[in-house]
Amino acid sequence: MPRSFSMRGVQGAADRAVQHAWSWMLETAPGSRVHDVQEDPRFQHRGVDLLWELPSGEVRGIEVKGDRQTRRRYWFELVSNVEKDTPGCFLYSGADLLVYVFLSQAELHVLPLKDVREWFLPRAKAYALKQTSTKTGAIRYTTVGAVVPCHEVLEAVPSVLHVPLKRRAGKKAEAEEVSSEKETSETVPLAPTGTDSE
To answer: What is the mean pLDDT of residues 136-163?
Structure first.
């Protein structure tokens, strides 16, 4: 039986993941600019959430995933909507980088999608497939993904970056984090909370 969750329940986690990704990009390349294209239909269908405009003029497409699970495992979406038979973001995304934020561990992983896909696809059958059910309004749909231990990807794909996040200081910030976690933990998804639209 697939686990289920509501889009409202995970939106806070997705927003925080985007904020962490945004901060990392600006710190990594001072003088760069980040453009939020999550609501832009031209980029939604390409699996791109943010555009990272580097000082050199190069523009990179970024997909962001926020994960609240305590285990360090990636969830690579292979089928985004079983009912409509649509491919998952891991397969179709035109993003250059997948920024995967583990919120519970305060870790940010930067996965060059091309490199990770090339490593994963020949080995796909070795990993368990898991389903999750998402409800948006009256519509419910099923998503399928592969669960892949982070250490296997980090060891096999040298271009993947692992970045510890700075914890927010102060009791007020801690209280906000705890409150936000409680608010979004009614039903914890097996899948990470992405920023994709169905």
So the answer is: 94
- Geometric angle at alpha carbon 47, from 28 and 86, rounded to 5°: 155
pTM: 0.79
The per-residue pLDDT for 10 is: 52
Using only the alpha carbons of the chain, give its radius of gyration. 16
So what's the pLDDT on residue 22?
A: 97
Owner of token pair 């969830």? 75
Angle (CA) 28-91-8 rounded to 5° is: 75
N-to-C CA span, the chain: 22
SS3 at position 186: coil
Show the tokens assigned to 31: 């003088």
Alpha helical stretches, state H, 29-143:
41-44, 89-92, 113-120
Task: Report the pLDDT value the prediction gives residue 116, as an integer from 0 to 100.
Answer: 98
- In the three-class reduction of DSSP (H, G, I as helix; E, B as strand; rest coil), residue 39 is classed as coil
